[in-house]
Each structure stands twice: as C-alpha cells, then as structure tokens.
Write a structure and sequence with these properties.
Rossmann fold; alpha/beta
Length: about 325
C-alpha cells in the first residue's frame, strides 16, 4: 500500500564528499548539530551532518558532496526544472503572483527602467517571466546550470536571454548588470566568497544584489533542529546563514546593506513535516499529506508565520538587498 513503511525508499548510490570549513569566518572547528538524508529526492543513501562553527556559530553541511556530483543531487525531476502546469487563474497562482509582486517592489525602486537584470539559478524562468510584466524595457538574463525541455524556446518568447552554466564559470562582462537576483541560491553554492566577489565584479558601480535564503535564526527550527527542519534540504543546502552571518559575508565582498526583511516561510514548515515523516520511514505518505502546493497548508503556515512575525519572532526565510560600493 502507498503508506507502507520504508518500502517507498529507493535511494541512489554513494556520492563523493569533501570536508570544508566555515564560509563566514574560515574557522575549521565545529560541533555537529543535525543529521539527515535526502528525504525529498532520495538521490543517495548517505547520512549528512550540519555543523555549527565554534567561533561565529555559522551552520553548514560538513562533509558535503563534491561539486562534481551536481548532476546527481539535482536530478531531472528537480522541481525548478519541471514545475508542472500551473493554472494561472488558480488560487495558488494568484497568491504566488501577489507575493512575488510585493517582493519585486522592494528591488525595482533601486534600478532604472532599462536595467540589465540577471537572475542566477533562474530555474523554470517564472521570476523573469513575471518580471517582464513590470519592466518592458529591461534586458533580462537567466542563468542556470541546466534548463528543462522547452524552457529556452519559452525564454525567447519573453525576450529573455539564457546562459547555461554556473555563476562560477559563466563569462559575463565587468560592470554590466544593474540588478542581480539570487533567490534561494546562495545556500546551494560551493564557494560563497567567490560567487559574491564575482557578483560584485559583474554589477555596475552602485548596482544592486537581491538575495533570498533560509534564515538559521528561524523560530521554527528549534522544533525540528536535530534532523528534519525544512531549511536543511539535505544535501543541496550547503550553508544556512543567520541574518548577521549573511550581512558579514556581503560586507566582506564589498557591498553595503540597503535593507533586510523577514519573509514568511510556509514551504519550510511543509518540508519540515515531510522530512519528519520521511525520517520515520513514511516518505510517500509525507509527500501526499504535506504537498508544497497545498493551498490549505500554505494558508495555515502563512498565518502561523505571520502571527509569529507580528509577535517579533524571526521567520525561516529572509531577503536582503545590498548595493555595490561605488568606486
């Protein structure tokens, strides 16, 4: 039956791993704080550990998969490449569009109408397609290491240029972009310092970098922190930044902070419950009960986070907008 314990697990094989150190302060000393597996895609049977830096308390995956394993931990079924058909008139789509519009307003006020905008880790191009509604004159570029079937043709229809590759290897001119967007991306990169330095180089003087990423200070992490917190997203999230840690690495890379925002994080709640049941052996059941496209659960956890935010708690998602220091 579809709820049978353990029988729905078909794990992938062994991945090559490597030891690393703190991306914020470079300290090699750490304490293990959580252990878990790839509950979502089951790409490997290995257990992974998140550790906390003994000096600055930054949380990161150690050991982590080597970058050569990227195709294995991001399989063709990965959701950003294959988002499925979403009814644009559905409640889910309308709520998503409203949230997106409000977040875009935070950054569009900082750039000219004819801006060059680069979305790193653009996935299914949905952000850039929606962005086109508000910036007819902007030059839009989407960069990702892989594009799903038909996406590049779809990009052309919206006037979006696509670049296949990673930000580490992509060849882009210096002082080129007015805005770089990295939504739910920085936690996935292997060399944070190099990526932020490259973003600084690509941006024009005074250019803006907008980042959304899980927040290690999220109030809900304490309920699931030993194994199943959704922000861990084993083994694809390599760094989980606190707000202070994120500001530190950005300042070190030559950016000034414009604003920082607590974002509601209902998907992280949903993944936490998925991972909790998966760790107990009920992976199929977890994904059927707690779909990240369920209007019911998204509504419930939006309200939960909204109340927590009003009461002063830190949510498990954050947005930071920074500017390249003019030179």
């Amino acid at each position: 039956m579809w709820f049978n314990k353990r029988q729905d697990y078909l794990f992938g094989g062994e991945l090559q791993t490597e030891l690393t150190f703190c991306a914020v302060c470079c300290c090699p000393s750490y304490d293990k704080i959580a252990e878990g597996q790839d509950y979502l895609h089951a790409t490997t049977h290995q257990e992974y550990s998140f550790v906390k830096c003994q000096k600055c308390e930054h949380i990161y995956l150690n050991p982590r998969p080597k970058i050569d394993e990227i195709a294995k931990i991001y399989p063709s079924s990965y959701s950003t490449y294959n988002p499925g058909n979403i009814d644009r008139k559905s409640v889910f789509a309308m709520v998503k569009d409203t949230v997106l519009k409000n977040r875009l307003k935070l950054v569009l006020s900082h750039i000219p109408d004819s801006a060059v905008i680069l979305d790193i880790g653009c996935g299914d191009l949905s952000l850039l397609k929606d962005l086109r509604k508000y910036t007819n004159e902007a030059h839009l570029i989407g960069l990702d290491w892989n594009f799903g079937p038909g996406l590049e043709k779809s990009a052309h229809e919206f006037g979006i240029k696509t670049i296949t590759g990673t930000i580490e290897t992509a060849e882009l001119p210096k002082n080129y972009c007015d805005l770089i967007i990295m939504n739910q991306l920085i936690e996935h990169v292997w060399d944070v310092e190099h990526v932020l330095s490259k973003c600084n180089t690509i941006l024009k003087p005074g250019g803006v970098l907008s980042i959304e990423t899980p927040n290690a200070d999220g109030w809900d992490r304490k309920f699931f922190q030993r194994r199943s917190w959704g922000g861990y997203y084993w083994p694809r999230h390599l760094n989980i930044f606190s707000s202070s840690g994120l500001k530190t690495v950005l300042k070190d890379a030559g950016f000034e902070i414009l604003s920082h925002h607590k974002l509601l994080a209902p998907p992280i709640w949903i993944y936490s419950l998925q991972f909790f049941l998966s760790a107990k052996g009920y992976r199929n059941l977890s994904q059927r009960l707690f779909s990240d496209k369920s209007i019911l659960w998204l509504t419930i956890f939006t309200l939960v986070d909204l109340i927590a935010k009003i009461c002063g708690s830190t949510t498990s998602n954050q947005k930071i907008i920074v500017r390249k220091t003019k030179k």
